[in-house]
């Protein structure tokens, strides 16, 4: 089997690293294709070193630009490589433009696509990421979904349960593995010294880069006003290049940088950043990955957004959405600082993203599909029989797998009277309403 991984931005490198590593360990043939969307050393090269993964075999160097231009250039470059390399499956991760470009190109070339972190939905079509992730899901063959909730999103859109693999999120693998490496190397003291602050008490780690926040002067001003009030915190802000540009353009960079308790620094490498976040009292962010890492590292998170495609973190109690509302940011931050029970409750929220074995489960599934010939994308040759979609209540002890074998059916949804359940093979359906397709 030959696997091609398409990536292009910082979070894709981090989240694909455990999977790339697992593929190498198993001796499976692989190529890595970098779109070049992120190109600063601090946003790209450093992560290949920190995460100890091979440098990409190809870099398309698309650089920055409008969505259309960037995605178009990526598609052209990816197509050339895939025509040449002929992989059995293309892996894309998340919701960036690389995901959209990689999925569209591979689908047209009839190459199977594995979407890592599939099924997330913010239900906000003004976000470029929501467009990308939905389009990639339409094109994909295998869906590596982090939680049952994301699997249910896909079921509700009509995707077949058989191609959904609930594997957790590889960010947990990356977090566990690399925090240990960083601590063992004695990185901690050195990297914290680099931050050049007087003490490590009351650390608030801040990251923001979402277009809807940092490209909007009113929102970003509200956030800065909130930061001004949190002057008993050490606010460490490794700044994303997009944010640096817009703050400078709005004339807000110096105002923020001059605050005695705000330390604006360059983006950190992954090991340094993990040590910073794991030593933080609070994380304030609009990052997707950081919402997941916060709950993995038991650090309370306030998310500078009005919606999230990671609602599990909020339901679990580790994350609160505060938008760019100054008062909501200040009040919730104060509560975490001053109310120990409240903060402990957030810290003890159960991580919904798995045990840190996501890479292993993902590669297991790909090997199984490859062995069974399920990565071959062919037009169907059997004459389409009719099928009916039915809904019934089950009143006997029977698992999904047993029901499907007996009825020659495929179960879609299972409802236990309270909420939707993801119908994995072992689920006992007794007492549930189910929908299923039946071949006649
Ligand atoms: C992209 C992703 C976003 C992801 C984020 C991770 C899309 C649509 N957006 O957003 O989903 O959360 O990466 O960080 O794919 N720049 C540099 N150096 C770099 C990269 C960017 O200076 O190495 C500057 C450029 O001015 C560029 C701006 O940052 O115009 C935005 O970069 P871009 O890659 O378009 O989007 P991100 O905001 O990074
Ligand atoms: N990150 C990092 N250094 C930093 C800031 C973030 O290594 O200075 C990591 C962080 O741990 C997370 C990822 O970058 O894994 C998140 O990337 P980003 O916020 O750019 O993108 P998103 O997750 O929102 O797509």
Helical/strand content category: alpha/beta
CATH topology of the largest domain: Rossmann fold
> How many helices in DSSP terms?
19
CATH architecture term of the largest domain: 3-Layer(aba) Sandwich
Q: How much of the polypeptide forms β-strand, as a percent range?
A: 15-25%
Detailed description of the structure:
It contains 19 helices and 17 strands. The protein is an alpha/beta fold and 440 residues long. It folds into 3 domains: 2-168 and 356-371, Glycogen Phosphorylase B (Rossmann fold, 3-Layer(aba) Sandwich); 181-347, Glycogen Phosphorylase B (Rossmann fold), CATH 3.40.50; 387-439, no CATH class. The chain has a 7-stranded parallel sheet, sandwiched between helices. A 6-stranded parallel sheet has the order 10-9-8-11-12-13, with helices on both faces. The chain has a 4-stranded antiparallel sheet with strand order 14-17-15-16. The longest helix has 19 residues, at 67-85. It starts with a strand and ends with a strand. The chain binds uridine-diphosphate-N-acetylglucosamine and uridine-5'-diphosphate. Uridine-diphosphate-N-acetylglucosamine (UD1) binds at residues 9-11, 37-40, 43, 64, 95-97, 128-129, 209, 241-242, 245.
């Amino acid at each position: 089997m030959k696997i091609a991984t398409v990536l292009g931005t910082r979070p894709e490198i981090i989240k694909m690293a455990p999977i790339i590593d697992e593929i190498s360990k198993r001796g499976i043939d692989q190529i890595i294709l970098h779109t070049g969307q992120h190109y600063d050393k601090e946003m790209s090269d450093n992560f290949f070193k920190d995460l100890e993964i091979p440098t990409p075999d190809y870099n398309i160097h698309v650089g920055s630009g409008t969505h259309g231009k960037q995605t178009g250039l990526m598609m052209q470059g990816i197509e050339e490589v895939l025509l040449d390399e002929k992989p059995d499956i293309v892996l894309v991760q998340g919701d960036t433009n690389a995901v959209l470009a990689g999925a569209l190109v591979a689908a047209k070339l009839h190459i199977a696509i594995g979407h890592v972190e599939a099924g997330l939905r913010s239900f906000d079509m003004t976000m470029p990421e929501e467009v990308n992730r939905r389009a990639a899901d339409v094109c994909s063959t295998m869906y590596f979904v982090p939680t049952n909730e994301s699997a249910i999103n896909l079921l509700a859109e009509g995707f077949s349960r058989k191609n959904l693999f609930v594997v957790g999120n590889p960010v947990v693998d990356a977090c566990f593995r690399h925090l240990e490496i960083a601590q063992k190397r004695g990185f901690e003291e050195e990297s914290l010294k680099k931050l050049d602050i007087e003490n490590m008490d009351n650390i608030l780690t801040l990251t923001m880069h979402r277009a809807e926040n940092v490209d909007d002067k009113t929102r970003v001003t509200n956030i800065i006003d909130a930061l001004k009030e949190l002057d008993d915190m050490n606010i460490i802000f490794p700044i994303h290049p997009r944010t640096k540009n817009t703050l400078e353009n709005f004339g807000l960079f110096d105002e923020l940088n001059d605050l005695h308790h705000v330390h604006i620094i360059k983006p950190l490498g992954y090991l340094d950043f993990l040590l910073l976040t794991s030593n933080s009292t609070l994380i304030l962010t609009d990052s997707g990955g950081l919402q997941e890492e916060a709950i993995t590292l038991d650090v309370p998170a306030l998310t500078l957004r009005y919606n999230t495609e990671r609602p599990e973190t909020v339901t679990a109690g580790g994350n609160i959405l505060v938008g760019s509302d100054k008062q909501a940011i200040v009040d919730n931050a104060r509560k975490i600082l001053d109310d120990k029970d409240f903060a402990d409750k957030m810290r003890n929220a159960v991580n919904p993203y798995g045990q840190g074995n996501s890479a292993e489960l993902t590669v297991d599934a790909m090997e199984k599909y490859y062995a069974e010939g399920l990565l071959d994308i062919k037009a169907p040759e059997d004459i389409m029989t009719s099928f009916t979609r039915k809904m019934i209540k089950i009143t006997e002890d029977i698992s999904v797998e047993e029901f499907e074998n007996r009825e020659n059916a495929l179960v879609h949804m299972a409802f236990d009277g309270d909420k939707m359940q993801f119908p994995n093979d072992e689920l006992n359906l007794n007492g549930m309403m189910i929908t299923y397709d039946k071949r006649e």
